Amino acid sequence: MPVPYIDIHTHDAVEQEDVFQLQSLFLQDFEQNPSLNYPVTAGIHPWHAHLFTPDEAREMLERNVGNPTIVGIGETGLDRSIHTSLAVQEEIFELHIDAAQKFGKPLIIHCVRCWQDVLRMKKGTTIPWILHGYTGNLQTTQQLLKKDFFFSIGSHLLDHRAKLRESVEIIPIENLFMETDDSSVDIKDIYREVALLNNMSPEDLKMHIFGNLKKIFGPIVRA
């Protein structure tokens, strides 16, 4: 089987022959259908943090994240653009961090205007943290690289946003993933743009990203 394109984070998986899509589910939805026969990530989105008490969130995580179908935890994280207090979000996020450490599964992070908070909460952790839909500027990217974050680049790159293009140019290929999230963009277009910014062919980029997937998530897809 040829090496596929990897879409590390999508909410609307549509089967494509040469693309592997890692679907992101809300944990409460996964719990209603836990017998899926393909790998997913699942977590309590910060937009939903107010729906659960810490005890309810902890119990739901404990019931589900050990399931081998869940290969990554999230998306989870922090968001300053919503009404839920950051204190409530942090408490739920911390539970995900603990679960990820316990089960040895990577975290898929949603972060909106909370970079310093996320940096603070990462201290002392050992599992990979992947920043999904990353759009940070050069200075933020440099800070995050020092703390070994991984970066998932989405459709915003195709808008030719200067700050994101500058960031992609300095992120090592070993720290990169690509995603479609909830957009209708073709993952191959994002690959082509990232390859262009890194002066490499899309085929070479595919090989590198497939290696990143195996390193972080294990053998969840064959090639």
From TrEMBL:
<feature type="binding site">
    <location>
        <position position="181"/>
    </location>
    <ligand>
        <name>a divalent metal cation 1</name>
    </ligand>
</feature>
<dbReference type="GO" id="GO:0005829">
    <property type="term" value="C:cytosol"/>
</dbReference>
<keyword id="KW-0378">Hydrolase</keyword>
<dbReference type="GO" id="GO:0016788">
    <property type="term" value="F:hydrolase activity, acting on ester bonds"/>
</dbReference>
<dbReference type="Pfam" id="PF01026">
    <property type="entry name" value="TatD_DNase"/>
</dbReference>
<dbReference type="InterPro" id="IPR032466">
    <property type="entry name" value="Metal_Hydrolase"/>
</dbReference>
<protein>
    <submittedName>
        <fullName>TatD family hydrolase</fullName>
    </submittedName>
</protein>
<keyword id="KW-0479">Metal-binding</keyword>
<feature type="binding site">
    <location>
        <position position="75"/>
    </location>
    <ligand>
        <name>a divalent metal cation 1</name>
    </ligand>
</feature>
<dbReference type="InterPro" id="IPR001130">
    <property type="entry name" value="TatD-like"/>
</dbReference>
<feature type="binding site">
    <location>
        <position position="110"/>
    </location>
    <ligand>
        <name>a divalent metal cation 2</name>
    </ligand>
</feature>
<dbReference type="GO" id="GO:0046872">
    <property type="term" value="F:metal ion binding"/>
</dbReference>
<feature type="binding site">
    <location>
        <position position="132"/>
    </location>
    <ligand>
        <name>a divalent metal cation 2</name>
    </ligand>
</feature>
